[in-house]
Specification:
There is one protein chain. The chain has 7 helices and 10 strands. By secondary structure, the chain is α/β, with parallel strands linked by helices. The chain has a 5-stranded mixed beta sheet, sandwiched between helices. Strands 8-7-6-9-10 form a 5-stranded mixed beta sheet, with helices on both faces. The two termini are 21 Å apart.
Length: 263
């Protein structure tokens, strides 16, 4: 049984694959808040409760695949895996077998989640493709027709933008983002929602348009991440909404590296 763990700045996503080789669908998946201060034991107890609620046992996990963009938590998660699952995780990073060329000037700079997204996007949808990941940051990852990681763009995420408005202005409140009824807001909250929401729609459409132009051909565009569902219905450039894309990439990377070890 494989446990895939994707640690981002805001959330940790987990998925359990009883048979990752034969069945690409997870039996169960969860999202929990990222807390940099939690110890491996605190996370271990949390994971144990999630497993118990789903009728699963920690001891049935034989392998763990981990992607983490929060450096202090890499060691925490490794210790958790050794203590609660009695295994060392496959950590997405330099030295692992990805199955694709990383055409970044410095491949070590690429976030683990973007590698997972690129691997899963090409495996599921082919190339060229573009992954728009709407998380703490909004990232755009371009994959070539031949399956090469080309690079992309990184922009502030929606949550960061909402926080910045409240923190750096005297009269604007903190708000929850909802799809606005109109671009002409008639209250402060409605105006903020219109500005942030349609601002991000325009940003995504323009960046994807420019990526298409630089690729020289249309690409399949996949949306993932916590804010994707809210935006995907408005974005005309999105072809697929795939909330488990990063975890699917972890499953694929685990299989590629396990096969390499067997050889």
């Amino acid at each position: 049984m494989l446990l895939a763990v994707n640690v981002n700045n805001t959330q940790i996503k987990l998925a359990v694959y009883p048979d990752p080789e034969r069945d690409p669908q997870p039996r169960v998946h969860w999202r929990v808040s990222t807390d940099w201060e939690k110890t491996e034991d605190e996370y271990g107890i949390l994971f144990a409760h999630l497993f118990q609620h789903a009728g699963l046992r920690l001891q049935d996990v034989t392998d763990v695949a981990l992607s983490c963009v929060v450096p202090p938590l890499v060691d925490t998660m490794e210790r958790l895996c050794e203590r609660y699952f009695a295994t060392r995780p496959l950590v997405v990073g330099p030295g692992i077998r990805t199955g694709m060329r990383i055409l970044y000037e410095n491949p070590r700079e690429v976030g683990a989640d973007r590698i997972c997204n690129a691997v899963a996007a090409f495996a599921k949808y082919g190339g060229p493709s573009v992954v728009c990941d709407f998380g703490t940051a909004t990232t755009f990852t371009a994959v070539s027709r031949d399956g090469d990681f080309l690079g992309g763009a990184i922009a502030p995420g929606i949550g960061i933008s909402l926080d910045a408005l409240a923190e750096h202005t005297a009269q604007l409140p903190r708000i929850d983002l909802e799809k606005p009824r109109s671009a002409i807001g008639r209250t402060t909250v409605a105006a903020m929602q219109a500005g942030v929401y349609y601002g991000f729609v325009g940003q995504v459409e323009e960046i994807v348009r420019r990526i298409h132009r630089e690729l020289g051909e249309p690409a399949t565009v996949i949306a993932t991440g916590g804010w994707a569902r809210l935006l995907a219905e408005e974005l005309t450039c999105i072809h697929h909404h795939d909330p488990l894309l990063t975890l699917e990439g972890l499953r694929i990377l685990f299989l590629r590296n396990r096969r390499a070890e067997v050889r």
